[in-house]
Write a structure and sequence with these properties.
The complex is a heterodimer of chains A (294) and B (354).
Chain A: H1 2-32, H2 39-56, H3 61-84, H4 92-114, E1 129-132, E2 135-138, H5 139-161, H6 163-173, H7 175-180, H8 185-211, H9 217-221, H10 224-231, H11 236-261, H12 265-280
Antiparallel strand pairs in A: 1-2
Helix pairs in contact in A: 1-5, 1-8, 1-10, 1-11, 2-3, 2-4, 2-8, 3-8, 5-6, 5-8, 6-8, 10-11, 10-12, 11-12
Chain B: H1 13-17, H2 26-41, H3 48-73, H4 81-96, H5 102-124, H6 129-149, H7 151-154, E1 160-161, E2 166-167, E3 170-171, H8 175-198, H9 200-210, H10 212-217, H11 222-248, E4 250-251, H12 258-271, H13 276-301, H14 309-331, H15 335-349
Antiparallel strand pairs in B: 1-4, 2-3
Helix pairs in contact in B: 3-8, 3-11, 3-12, 3-13, 4-5, 4-11, 5-11, 8-9, 9-11, 12-13, 12-14, 12-15, 13-14, 13-15
The chains are: A mainly alpha (294), B mainly alpha (354).
Chain lengths: 294, 354
């Protein structure tokens, strides 16, 4: 029972991290139609930016956080401006490959700057344990869960209520009509990338609290893909549910299966789920089926 | 059949069906022979290190031809190509333990990879574009996991050694003899893909790429076309992996990481999607690029003393792969093949502009 509760909580908090990462991914897909294969790397870059400001430059954590997120905002903006804007109107395959190339570039730049050694981040939340349902649980899980939930709520509020968020939703719904009603579509594209990068940054910073910071983080960040696909690539509610499912499945696989086969299944189970979903419901649980005309 | 000095029309069905239709003319024939001879003589004056690099380039040509058939000709994105190389390589390592000769091992390696490629194709039949890319990513992760876990077959994460290739009771050893082996196989594969391109199968693939619904309306079976594309693509990937295993003599899962898949994607983009010559150019470009990077890094390490060449070399290489993909997609989406074609046209009509 104790291990069950512990796995469940770690799965849920990890899953909220995936949901947060997947949300940025869905945002880019919804408003710009680009499937961003470099999102895992963006999540990793977010973690490393925070590490840079918090540990290497010695800022207090509550200063380092906004500075790291502002850098992510700028990075997202720059990526859209330099790489994606010239590709508007190119075939999907070219844009997918461009983001694959971008992922390779980001990952190797991180490796070039910070090296392969795992870095030791200063914990953002106070360490220790708390008891819940008879189990002793690390506090960091609860804090991460709370922070991720808060961040997701903040983003949803931003989409629902703010003028920029509404402009983004309008562009996602119908680019031409949004453009006709005076919304600058290129501006929304840039903003979508910037906002998605910020979400990736938050996700990276939270994931780093749970499992440290090293170059393998981008493959952990890749777990945001199954999360996004599971729920349906264009559904915000779906991606949160998808993130939770992937997080919990991974935690249980890690807890119950890995001891028998010697580790590693936790990393791959998300992809197994992804493959099954793609075979049964290619558009996810809540996604809109794509209608194709010749 | 009299060969004219220059003729830009064809006079028989045989000429029409030729694999290289331009070879009816004198100068293309001349250059064809010159290039073939040059390739045979190329390694003789070179240092061992350069022969090694060229061999890796030739192996990459075979792999890139395979991926180009799938992505460039059939329009199916795959980031699992490294997995097919891995399957070929591990089949080679396994069969090598029984002392089988290379003319059995290499086709077997291709066949195993093609078999798995066919299995991958089944879910791929329902998926397009980004969903397919994701599915191949998932396959990559699963195959990588399987290789790391199946210690008894693959040696797990530690890797396994590969017996030297044998042929007719003799061992193929040394970079020079390996050069002729890979050159021969690469030439066969190039002719094979070139031949496929002009025939029914190749045209069906291109039709599926351009519009799958229209292709199906025209009576092309999407199922068989995609299955063939995946099968042949992974067959070539398996052969490349087999040669790589023979050449490196020791393989582990890190030889077939995601970066390898991405470098193959880079090769076909840089070379030119849907062209044979592009696969060749792209593979050679991407294999020689790290050499250039290495030289530049060595030169700059004296300027920037903090730069640790040994540690940062792999990352610099990877970053440049990524950058090259982005730049080619943005500025030269048709790749080196297009540059080559423009060059040929320029010389053909020289001294006139058109």
């Amino acid at each position: 029972m104790e291990i069950l509760v512990q796995l469940l909580l770690s799965g849920v908090s990890q899953g909220m991290g995936y949901a947060l990462g997947g949300l940025g991914f869905v945002l880019i897909y919804k408003s710009t139609g680009v499937f961003n294969f470099s999102h895992g790397q963006l999540i990793m870059v977010g973690g490393y930016f925070f590490y840079l400001f918090q540990v290497q430059l010695g800022l207090p954590p509550w200063w380092a956080l906004p500075v790291a997120l502002a850098s992510m905002f700028a990075l997202g903006m720059a990526i859209e401006r330099l790489c994606l804007r010239p590709m508007v109107g190119e075939p999907t395959i070219a844009i997918i490959m461009l983001t694959i190339g971008l992922g390779g570039l980001l990952r190797n730049l991180v490796g070039l700057i910070w090296g392969t050694q795992p870095q030791a981040p200063v914990p953002l939340f106070e360490p220790g344990f708390f008891s819940f349902a008879g189990a002793q649980l690390p506090r960091v899980y609860a804090w991460t869960l709370a922070a991720a939930t808060l961040a997701i709520l903040a983003f949803i509020l931003f989409f629902q209520k703010s003028a920029q968020g509404m402009a983004m939703r309008a562009v996602a719904f119908d680019q031409d009509k949004a453009s006709l009603s005076g919304i600058s579509v290129p501006r929304v594209f840039a903003l979508s990338w910037a906002a998605a990068s910020v979400m990736a940054g938050v996700s990276g910073i939270l994931m780093m609290q749970l499992m440290g910071l090293d170059l393998s983080m981008d493959s952990r960040g890749l777990s945001a893909f199954p999360a996004a696909i599971l729920g349906g690539i264009d559904s915000i509610g779906g991606v949160i549910l998808g993130g939770l499912i992937i997080g919990i499945v991974e935690a249980f696989t890690g807890g119950y299966l890995d001891p028998y086969i010697g580790g590693g299944a936790k990393e791959v189970v998300g992809f197994v789920v992804l493959l099954l979903i793609l075979m049964v419901r290619p558009y996810g649980l809540f996604g809109t089926p794509e209608i194709r005309k010749v | 059949m009299a060969m004219k000095f220059f003729r830009n029309y064809r006079v028989s069905y045989r000429e029409d069906r030729a694999i290289f239709p331009t070879l009816i003319n004198f100068w293309p024939r001349f250059w064809f022979v010159v290039i073939a001879l040059a390739l045979l003589l190329l390694p003789l004056p070179l240092q061992q290190y350069w022969i090694y690099t060229i061999n890796l380039g030739l192996i990459a040509v075979i792999g890139a031809l395979g991926l180009n058939l799938l992505t460039g000709y059939s329009g199916q994105i795959s980031i699992a190509h490294a997995s097919f190389l891995a399957l070929g390589a591990y089949t080679t390592a396994y069969l090598g333990r029984f002392g089988l000769p290379l003319y059995l091992v290499i086709p077997a390696a291709g066949a195993i990879a093609a078999l798995v490629g066919g299995i991958v194709a089944v879910p791929a039949l329902r998926l397009r574009g980004l969903y397919l890319a994701l599915a191949t990513l998932a396959f990559y992760a699963i195959i990588d996991f399987a290789i790391r876990k199946a210690d008894f077959l693959t040696g797990g994460a530690a890797g396994t050694s590969v017996a030297a290739p044998t042929m007719f009771g003799k061992t193929v050893a040394g970079d020079l003899s390996f050069y002729y082996l890979t050159l021969g196989i690469a030439a066969i594969c190039t002719f094979f893909v070139k031949n496929l391109e002009r025939g029914k199968v190749g045209r069906a693939m291109m039709a599926v790429r351009d519009s799958d619904i229209a292709a199906e309306m025209a009576g092309i079976s999407l199922f068989w076309t995609k299955l063939t594309a995946f099968g042949i693509s992974s067959f070539l990937g398996g052969i490349a992996g087999s040669l790589l295993a023979y050449y490196l003599q020791f393989i582990n899962p890190d030889n077939f990481g995601l970066a390898v898949s991405i470098s193959y994607v880079a090769m076909i983009i840089v070379g030119g999607l849907g062209t044979v010559i592009g696969s060749v150019f792209g593979a050679i470009f991407m294999v020689f690029l790290p050499e250039v990077v290495r030289v530049v890094l060595h030169a700059s390490s004296s300027v920037i003393p903090k730069l640790d060449v040994a540690a940062s070399g792999a990352f610099a290489e990877g970053a440049i792969y990524g950058l090259v993909i982005i730049l080619f997609l943005m500025f030269k989406p048709e790749g080196l093949a297009r540059l080559w074609r423009d060059l040929l046209i320029y010389f053909r009509s020289w001294p006139f502009t058109y």
